Amino acid sequence: MLLPLLSRLSSPINSDTCWELIAQGARVIDVRSEIEYAVAHLPQAENVPLEHFAEWLTTQDKSQVTLLYCGAGIRARQGCELLKANGFDCVINAGALGDLLKAIPAQSA
Questions:
Q1: Is there a contact between 103 and 17 (Cβ–Cβ < 8 Å)?
Q2: Which region holds residue 95: left if phi is over 0, alpha if psi is between -120 and 50, else beta?
Q3: What is the pTM of this model?
Q4: With 80 as the cut, is the pLDDT of residue 62 above it?
Q5: Residues 46, 32: contact at Cβ < 8 Å?
Q6: What one-character-per-residue DSSP string does 21-39 give?
Q7: Hey, what domains does the chain have and what are their CATH numbers?
Q8: Can you say whether the dihedral through the CA atoms of 70, 34, 104, 82 is positive or negative?
């Protein structure tokens, strides 16, 4: 399956692939601050600022496909590394919010 391979990548994956995973039920986490999230975010996204990850990850399903995004992809990468280090099976760096918004499928808009 392609998901384990994608989850090993530290750089962001293609936005179209991210949207396919979202359509298949992947969890979407916005790791930016609450203020950044309030300004703009994907409608499917849950806001979990990176500084709250240590507490948050202890209550989560580690087997669920999880996509992380942020402003530029750096915090999403950091979040992916933290989740992987804590036993999460499939976490994917979805990169920057702007890139995801540019590639949003017509039916999701």
A1: no
A2: left
A3: 0.86
A4: yes
A5: no
A6: HHHTT-EEEE-S-HHHHHH
A7: 2-102 (3.40.250.10)
A8: positive
